[in-house]
């Protein structure tokens, strides 16, 4: 599947994530929350099990919390930064179980 060209985090969560989640075969026990700072940032909740994406944060429990500034998040989305590089440089904060984080990354990676 070709990933559509996106320019902002808001566009990514609106146009790309729903299709990725809908076609994913992985599951998380609870939703993941993305807290993206910057002009086109915001808070989005991705529930891989329910195959939904919504704007805003859900009450606990959550499986994973991802925090980043929009420019860094887009570098991750566009493949210019790996999750490991983002964490090591402090540009990306991942909170949650390591297995849940890996599962989330698998769900949000377009298949080729």
For this entry, give a set of tags.
112 residues; alpha+beta; Nonspecific Lipid-transfer Protein, Chain A; 5-stranded mixed beta sheet; 24% strand
Per DSSP E runs of 2 or more residues, the count of β-strands stands at 5
Count of alpha and pi helical runs? 4
Unreliably modeled segments? none
What percent of the residues sit in helical stretches (DSSP H or I)?
Answer: 25-40%
Q: Give the amount of beta strand, in percent.
A: 15-25%
Describe the largest sheet.
Answer: 5 strands, mixed
How far apart, in Å, are the first and last alpha carbons?
5 Å
What is the CA-atom radius of gyration, in angstroms? 13 Å
* Strand/helix succession: HEEEEHHEH
Q: Which outline best applies? A: globular
CATH architect. name: 2-Layer Sandwich
Going by CATH, the homologous superfamily would be: SCP2 sterol-binding domain
- Walk across the major sheet and give the strand order: 3-2-1-4-5
Number of domains: 1
Q: Briefly note the CATH topology name.
A: Nonspecific Lipid-transfer Protein, Chain A
CATH class: Alpha Beta
Please, could you describe this protein's structure?
With 112 residues, this protein is α+β, with helices and mostly antiparallel strands. The chain has one domain: Nonspecific Lipid-transfer Protein, Chain A, CATH 3.30.1050. The protein has 4 helices and 5 strands; from the N terminus they run αββββααβα. The protein has a 5-stranded mixed sheet with strand order 3-2-1-4-5. Strand 1 and strand 2 form a beta hairpin. It is globular, with a radius of gyration of 13 Å.
């Amino acid at each position: 599947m070709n990933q559509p060209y996106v320019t902002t985090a808001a566009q990514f969560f609106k146009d790309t994530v729903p299709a990725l989640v809908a076609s994913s075969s992985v599951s998380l026990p609870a939703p993941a929350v993305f807290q993206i700072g910057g002009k086109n940032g915001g808070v989005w909740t991705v529930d891989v099990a329910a195959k939904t994406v919504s704007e805003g944060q859900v009450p606990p429990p959550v499986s994973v919390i991802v925090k980043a500034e929009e420019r860094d998040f887009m570098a991750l989305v566009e493949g210019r930064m790996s999750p490991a590089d983002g964490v090591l440089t402090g540009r990306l904060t991942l909170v949650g179980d390591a297995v849940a984080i890996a599962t989330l990354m698998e769900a949000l990676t377009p298949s080729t």
